Amino acid sequence: MRALPLACLVCLAVTLPAWAALPPQYQRQAELSAIIADMGVAEAFGFGGVDAIELIAPDHYVVRGGSCVLSVRIEDAPNRHEAGWAGPREFTLVVGTPACSQ
Fold first, then answer.
1. Radius of gyration (Cα) for the chain, nearest Å?
2. Would you say residue 5 lies in a domain?
3. Is residue 11 assigned to a domain?
4. How many other CB atoms are there within 10 angstroms of residue 100's CB atom?
5. Cβ–Cβ < 8 Å for 84, 17
6. Alpha-carbon span 61 to 50, nearest angstrom
7. What is the DSSP letter of 59?
8. Residue 79, domain member (yes or no)
9. Does residue 2 fall inside a structural domain?
10. What is the mean pLDDT of each run of 10 residues along the chain (102 residues)?
11. Torsion sign (Cα): 65, 70, 71, 73
12. pTM of the predicted model, to two decimals?
């Protein structure tokens, strides 16, 4: 009889870190905001600006503006926190070279 409350407590403790992760729609919003705010992306398109941002694969976006296309990849940032830390995904942007057609 004592084993049931203990088993429930262990199950609850094991699932706690999962509660701290961002839901997918908010994670995507964080990634899109980072792409829009990135100076490398802004410099690639100049005054023409960004027309569209498209997710083409997990962690891989294509940014379009005018006649130019730019690849942006999402990479996990090194974990700066202690073991067992949970929270939103920390990432960095890897901005490619713009390809423009004439």
1. 20
2. no
3. no
4. 12
5. yes
6. 13
7. T
8. yes
9. no
10. 58 50 86 94 88 95 94 89 75 94 79
11. negative
12. 0.72
